[in-house]
């Protein structure tokens, strides 16, 4: 039942150059313990989510109401960034992998439209009957330009398909701020059903709130298990001694390697269903820790660069670089203790050296041998790595994964001296997009952007 962290491969022998040793880790632990104590003394709102059953009950009630109506075959999630990545990771890990061909009985197909690419959205509108969809629009502020545009587009499509505004509104649930923001005012005025993004919970830390729980309930996933797994990690890491805190150890080891010139952090799940957990991790790690200024206001330009790899696929595309390229990376291999199925490799149908060693083996044995092969190759090359093990792939262990990395991210921010809960760089990009789209109040910014664009000397080539 426990999520396991193995840091053995992260440390060089005492006296080795270029990597922290266990003695350096032990020496830095008191500083890390202070960061941990400050975090536990004033825990952020997202750390309370696993124990707040009212959110689960609200999602469960809304899902039950919609099922009773029976007017949809698909759930469509409209959102981007933290409003979508956790949902995508959860669905990829836990929902039927081939739901388009064999959906679970009585459960809708789930589509996550986390892009405004016109071709992708246009293909969806042409292929999927929107009148048989229920749309979950996720935006805390209601000011996310991508989500707002999707909302307008799909509301119009649904209204035309069902013939009235009243019928169209019944096919939307808006997950947004409970008290303020553009969507809150709109929903209160026009009567859209809503769920709450709790106060103090930022998008990338919101998967265990209604942002993720409603999708879980609608898709027939074990939302209760997600919260139970996260609650176990929260409790265990709050009650243990600092030197036993796995999230603290993970954060500290990575920060020490950053200080030694390894700012690239490769997240390498061995399991195709785990692949989108790496996408969720990338946003969490990058957006939380990549900062221009520290908490004292000094310019530091600090932060890791997270990279996604999926085993065994990327043994054939990235591991050559990892084993023989620059030593500027740290690796986290994510393994499953056991898969939900065991698939035997059939007896060879013909004599061949390529087949013979597979006799009597399983795909389970093969994928674990591939993981161990990558581990051996990296360790023999002197590359630092650690392993996170989920005992099995179920909601409880996915909930553990979410909670573990949220806490580790908060600790890493404290160790780096930055605020892991803001994203000023993202906000600047959002403001620029609003200005270029002609949003009122951004006229001066739009003029400044266009002047800057005009001042650049062109350097374009054609092939």
Query: For the report, how would you describe the main beta sheet?
Result: 5 strands, mixed
The total beta strand count reads 12
For the record, what CATH class of the largest domain applies?
Alpha Beta
Based on the coordinates given, report the CATH architecture of the largest domain.
3-Layer(aba) Sandwich
Secondary structure class reads alpha/beta
Count of the domains:
2
Residue ranges: pLDDT <50 for 5 or more in a row? none
The name of the CATH topology of the largest domain is Rossmann fold
In what range is the share of β-strand residues? 5-15%
Please tell me what the overall shape is: globular
The topology string of helices and strands comes to: EHHEHEHEHHEHEHHHEHEEEHEHHEHHH
Superfamily at the CATH H level of the largest domain? Answer: Glucose-6-phosphate isomerase like protein, domain 1
Span of the ends, CA to CA = 56 Å
Arithmetic mean of pLDDT: 92
Please give the radius of gyration in angstroms: 24 Å
* Percent range of helical residues: 40-55%
Q: Helical region count?
A: 17
How is the largest sheet built, in terms of strand order?
1-12-11-7-10
Record the SSE blueprint.
Layout: E1 4-6, H1 22-41, H2 53-69, E2 74-78, H3 85-94, E3 109-113, H4 118-127, E4 133-138, H5 145-162, H6 165-169, E5 172-176, H7 182-190, E6 193-196, H8 210-218, H9 223-239, H10 246-259, E7 264-269, H11 275-289, E8 291-293, E9 299-302, E10 305-308, H12 319-324, E11 329-338, H13 353-356, H14 363-380, E12 385-392, H15 395-416, H16 424-436, H17 443-455
Helix pairs in contact: 1-10, 1-15, 2-8, 3-8, 3-11, 9-15, 10-15, 11-15, 16-17
